[in-house]
Design brief:
The complex is a heterodimer of chains A (about 375) and B (about 350).
Chain A (H helix, E strand, L loop, with lengths): L8 H24 L4 H13 L2 H26 L7 H18 L7 H28 L3 H20 L26 E6 L2 E4 L1 H18 L1 H11 L1 H6 L4 H27 L5 H6 L2 H11 L4 H23 L7 H46 L1
Antiparallel strand pairs in A: 1-2
Chain B lengths: L1 H20 L25 E5 L10 H16 L2 E5 L6 H11 L4 E5 L4 H10 L4 E5 L16 E6 L1 H18 L10 E6 L4 H17 L4 E6 L6 H13 L2 E7 L1 H13 L3 E6 L9 E7 L1 H14 L6 E5 L6 E3 L10 H12 L11
Parallel strand pairs in B: 1-2, 1-3, 3-4, 4-5, 5-11, 6-7, 6-8, 8-9, 9-10
Antiparallel strand pairs in B: 10-12
């Protein structure tokens, strides 16, 4: 097996087939409930990419989940499963929102840039905490990151709750004061006044490029891949699994933190307590990374596709192509089935590899014992 | 793309012509944002654009009720339009904008979480009217801090809470219903400490105290309007502390609290919608007639007296709040509810809006 996996058309084939198959499943479902699937999919495509506004909405939805997808991707390359995207995004958006609201002394564009950097650091530290617990105490990062999600949610709820330090003074609502204008992400494209694309998508693309470069072209990237493939061998080869695990989780957390900040400073006016418990970009990132086959470029395409599907749900609702309330569920089903198909492939391959390897070992054991 | 654009241009053209012809009938048909492809053809009824909050249409409560009001308007007023569900807070601005672009005459935002997004959208779409459920832009002095094409919809939740509390307090004092213990403890579970939730619970507390002076009302917040398990866990804790009437004020999450009440054989009180369909353990429901308020707004949009630039308050008197079905065994206490209703309606009783 070559360590440096080059672009492999076969690797791209599975996600594409998964998407096509999931769309077919969705089509069958629509006809099964007695509606016109072709018309509904026309509306979906129209809502996803059918106009400048639709493309803008897709880009808005894609930016944060590309970032959380990269987060899952980089952790995965280091052999870690980061389910903590939600918590890392929340720590990021809390810091970003606080800077955007209160650090009004920062001049011009430095305001939102500092807010994003702060978000990356906060998310990064939150991720590194899980990495540290793994190497220092052997705590499984899956369990720790899930639990840290809840810690972050509760922490945010305390900060924004009535009487909390970030809650707007004199307000009855559990939310922060409005972000200063200079703290919001600048708009770069406004096809209509309601759908204004902000610089978040550029941030996502820059981070994706950075993530690719980091993994494929740097020394630490090589260590991340080596540790991810075989930690014992990497350790034997003189690499520090401890260092790689903590750095890998820091990177993962930083990307998720940026995802939270991009969504919040790009599209919201203030921090809302209610947003914390319904934030979906963390888990969406797992789907994006899975569909993107844990490559940076794959995450960009997968994020755009998932964003397009969500925009497509609005398109279906605009045209009343399906009964009220069905479109969002249908899109959820399609996204779920995509992940299922992609994941099933990975599971299948792993299983077949493990079964083959396992049999070899088991046969070797008793056989040699019997001879002795 | 180009076909789509031609359709749009045609739609705008038809819209403009029809707007001229029908100017007398419906004030705001001419839409300068392009309009949906059907904006020209169906112009007898009001075009409505409903945007749900993150709870979605199946919350069996708030968003579902607003949708019911819209369905009623489709039935009775020949209204047309579409509903768009929001998946996250960041969807609000995009979805409200989509409804404006659909050529809606009135865009209805469901829920106070959309406050900023509605204000922003309304300032950009001056020719579209907006209504927002559970929100006002009036400051302490009553000045309207948003554009005049928004109408706020507020409810006197405390009055519904008071009626439910009075009924529960009376039952508690009497102690004869199955499932009641001697502890004189009741409880409420709120979704979040936001004004509408607090008003419900404050009214409930006052209502209970009016009938049962030594009764205690436990209050807890689930910090969630969706996840039923969270409310169930909290309700079980309250029940273990002796609560035998659980008032849920947490939307979909609160259904878990009512399930806990059923499981433990105590009483539950529903919220927003009449939730008596959940079983015999539902004492009553504190009902917020979101459906009526949305219907009223659509109706007023059609008749040309849209109440923009202020918040319209729907109280007991306006049939905007009230009680749902009262459980059969508790109907003997109906007179308590009637007395409280009378006192509130004639102004001799003002229900507090904050917890004591």
């Amino acid at each position: 097996m070559n360590l440096l996996r080059r672009f492999d058309p076969e690797a791209a084939l599975v996600p594409v087939l998964a998407v096509v198959a999931a769309m077919l499943v969705g089509m069958v479902l629509i006809y099964a409930i007695g509606y016109d699937g072709i018309y509904a999919y026309g509306s979906l495509i129209n809502g996803a990419v059918g106009s400048q506004s639709a493309i803008a909405a897709t880009m808005l939805r894609a930016a944060p989940i590309i970032l959380t997808g990269l987060s899952v991707m980089i952790a995965f390359r280091a052999g870690l499963f980061n389910i903590g995207g939600t918590g890392q995004a929340i720590m990021g958006l809390l810091v970003a929102g606080t800077i955007a609201t209160h650090f009004t002394f920062l001049p011009g564009a430095s305001h939102w840039i500092v807010a994003l950097v702060g978000a990356a650091c906060a998310g990064g530290l939150w991720g590194a905490l899980a990495g540290f617990l793994k190497v220092a105490r052997g705590a499984n990062e899956v369990v720790v990151t899930i639990m840290l999600n809840y810690v972050a949610i509760r922490f945010g709820e305390y900060l924004l709750g009535l009487g909390g330090p970030l809650q707007e003074k004199g307000s009855d609502n559990p939310s922060s004061a409005l972000f200063a204008d200079s703290g919001r992400l600048p708009k770069i494209w406004s096809p209509d006044p309601f759908t204004e694309v902000n610089i978040g998508i550029i941030v996502a693309l820059v981070v994706a490029t950075f993530a690719w470069f980091l993994v494929a072209r740097t020394s630490i990237g090589f260590q991340i891949r080596a540790v991810g493939l075989q930690p014992d061998a990497a350790e034997y080869g003189g690499m520090s699994v401890t260092k790689v695990t903590v750095i890998g989780m820091f990177m993962a957390g930083a990307f998720s933190g940026l995802g939270g900040a991009v969504q919040t400073l790009g599209e919201l006016d203030r921090l809302q307590k209610s947003e914390l418990s319904v934030i979906q970009i963390g888990f969406a990132g797992i789907a994006v990374a899975l569909l993107g086959r844990n490559t940076a470029l794959g995450c960009v395409f997968a994020g755009l596709l998932m964003g397009a599907l969500d925009s497509g749900a609005v398109g279906i609702q605009n045209d009343n192509a399906l009964p009220s309330g069905v479109a969002t569920k249908l899109i959820g089903v399609i996204q779920g089935v995509i992940v299922l198909f992609v994941g099933a492939d990975v599971i299948f391959r792993r299983l077949s590899a493990r079964v083959a390897g396992g049999f070899g070992k088991q046969r070797a054991g008793p056989a040699s014992g019997g001879v002795a | 793309m180009s076909v789509h654009r031609m359709q749009r241009i045609a739609a705008v053209g038809i819209t403009v012509v029809l707007a001229g012809v029908l100017a007398a009938g419906c004030g705001k048909k001419g839409n300068d944002n392009g309009g949906g492809s059907s904006s020209g053809s169906k112009s007898d009824g009001v075009k409505v654009g409903l945007v749900t909050d993150v709870g979605g249409l199946n919350d069996k409560s708030f968003n579902a009720l607003a949708n019911k009001g819209y369905e009623k308007a489709k039935d009775k007023l020949d209204a047309t339009g579409q509903v768009i569900e929001s998946k996250s807070d960041s969807d609000y601005a995009k979805n409200l904008g989509a409804q404006v672009k659909n050529g809606s005459d009135i865009v209805v935002g469901i829920g106070f979480l959309m406050g900023d997004a509605v204000k922003d959208a309304a300032s950009k779409a001056k020719d579209t009217d907006f209504a927002i459920v559970d929100y006002t832009y009036a400051d302490d002095k009553g000045a309207w801090a948003a554009s005049d094409n928004i109408a706020g919809i507020l409810f006197k939740e405390q009055e519904a809470g008071y009626l439910a509390g009075a009924l529960a307090g009376k039952a508690e004092m009497d102690g004869k219903l199955d499932g009641l213990n001697d502890a004189h403890v009741l409880s409420a579970i709120g979704g979040q400490e936001i004004p509408p939730v607090i008003k419900y619970i404050a009214g409930f507390q006052a209502g209970v105290k009016s009938q049962c002076g030594d009764c205690k009302v436990l209050v807890d917040y689930s910090q969630d309007f969706v996840d039923q398990q969270k409310c169930k866990d909290r309700a079980l804790t309250q029940i273990s502390k002796g609560s035998d009437v659980v008032f849920q004020v947490a939307g979909g999450c609160g259904l878990g609290a009512l399930a806990a009440a059923k499981e433990k054989g105590v009483w539950g009180i529903g919220v927003d919608a009449d939730q008596s369909y959940l079983g015999d353990h539902i004492l009553t429901s504190a009902v917020k007639r979101v459906d009526e308020s949305v219907y009223t707004m659509i109706d007023k949009e059609g008749t040309g007296d849209f109440p923009g630039g202020k918040a319209t308050v729907f109280g007991l008197k306006e049939d905007g709040v009230g009680l749902g079905k009262i459980a059969q065994p508790a109907q003997q206490y109906q007179s308590v509810v009637d007395d409280a209703t009378k006192a509130i309606n004639d102004g001799s009783l003002t229900v507090p809006e904050t917890l004591s």
